[in-house]
Amino acid sequence: MKNIKRRFLQFSFYDRTGIERYLEKQALKGWRLCKIKGPVWYFERIEPQRLHFAVTYLPAASTYDPEPTEAQRQLEAFCMHAGWQQAAYNGEMQIFYHAGENPVPIETDALMEIENIHRAMKKSYLPSMFLLMFVGVMQMAMFISDWIKSPIRVLTETATQFRGLMALILLLITSVEIGGYFLWRRRAIKSAERDGSFIKTRGHQRFQWTMLFFAIALLIFMLTTLESSATGLMVFAILYVLLIFALVQGVTAYLKKKKVSGEVNKTLTIMAAVILSMVMIGILPFLGLSSIFPDRKPENTQVEAPLLPSDYFDVEPTEYDIDLNAAHSPLLKRSTYYVSPVPISCESPGVVYVIYDTKFDWAYDICLNQLLTDRQERSDQIDRAHMESYRLIDAQDFAAQSVYCQYWGEQPVVNGAYIVCYEDRIVLLRAGTELTGAQMKLIGEKIKP
Q: Rounded to whole angstroms, how far apart are CA atoms 117 and 111?
């Protein structure tokens, strides 16, 4: 039977009453807090009993201190005089327990306690939350910028979607934490000034766990849907970040072991984080990632195209060089085919077409809207009188739901492009020639889903 258990706990730093309530329940089950190390809380086995716990905050303490400071020793001596024993501490947070029935409270002035909590929050927790919020805002701004530039690109890239969702999760967590704290603080100050009472804190542990579970589920889903090379790069990026984190934590632990002061430790730790990040980024070009995780398929891989020029041209079958550029996500799949004859011949021109497949109506509409508007927006900047655009034409020959033909002003573009729409597929076709009705029928048989 083990006498020590470890729990990964996600309490809001200021959630005094929530922490006390949890620790008292654990004591009734026969487990008493004995140490806190980062997010891991250690409990030692005891006889099940009713213990009172008190969480107080000491702004003079720090997680970088190699040992308890003089202020911590004075607080511990004061509490011991009143029968309180120290269970553990985590930076500015000091946790005590008492086995008596009605112990004298450690904190007796609500306004002073609120101020101590605020000073402790300002020292470490709030700066880190604001920094994380800034990171979330920047990542979300990048995601929105990518969406404005090309919604299709975002819809076809699982990694970009993951980055946007993770930025959203980070913004939600930090906003709830910061907003919840300041909302509680405002109400607590009013209550303390009114009648001297202390309003119970309310953390967001359940919300944090929900967001963490959602983030892990997203990560697993993304890794299982990416191409093998992209999955390898993503795994490498995760290990890369974890390595930097472990190295920085190692620097902090080493300096604490060497009894370096808290302020010096904090400064050196920040410097180590910056230097290690720059060093790791600097050595990336020398790791040969392109050979470990190639972007392109091997040259001997055979690529088959659903449509060849010989399918709609009256020419002898010939050899074609086919290049496929594909990207896909659970929302949208894009397959771009570049087909050219070998050798190049005027009688048998090449063809370029892009196939977009999706099962979601909203993604279908976004994709079609971008294809229809991209050229028009570029033309608006050149000459509004001769605007390049797409116009609806008869879709019967392609056996499609709708077909758009490329126009320049009031005239169709010679050798222009077509946008052919089926139920779950959109095809952007550049046939390299002006198509006849018979050719459209032949092409439609090849490109329809």
A: 10
Whether residue 377 has pLDDT greater than 60: no
Backbone φ and ψ for 235, nearest 5 degrees, come out as -60, -40
CA distance linking residue 68 with residue 285, whole number of Å: 44
Q: In total, how many domains does the chain have?
A: 3
Global pTM reads 0.81
Tokens linked to 37: 């190390």
User: Does residue 219 lie within any of the structural domains?
Assistant: yes
Strands 31-37 and 333-342, sheet pairing: unpaired
Q: Return the CATH number at 426.
A: 3.40.1000
Domain end (from 237, 257, 292): 292
Q: Are 312 and 339 in contact (CB under 8 A)?
A: no
Q: Let me know whether 181 and 212 are in one domain.
A: yes
Secondary structure (DSSP) of 119-178: HHIIIIIHHHHHHHHHHHHHHHHHHHHHHHH-HHHHHH-HHHHHHHHHHHHHHHHHHHHH
DSSP 381: T
- Within a domain: 105: no
CA neighbor of 221 nearest in space, from 231, 207, 211, 232? 231
Helix (H) or strand (E) holding 370: helix 361-380
- First-to-final CA distance of the chain: 62
Same domain for 139 and 279?
Answer: yes
pLDDT in tens, 384-421: 445 678 899 999 999 999 999 988 877 788 778 899 99
State whether 196 and 283 are in the same domain. Answer: yes
Distance CA 188, CA 178 (A): 15
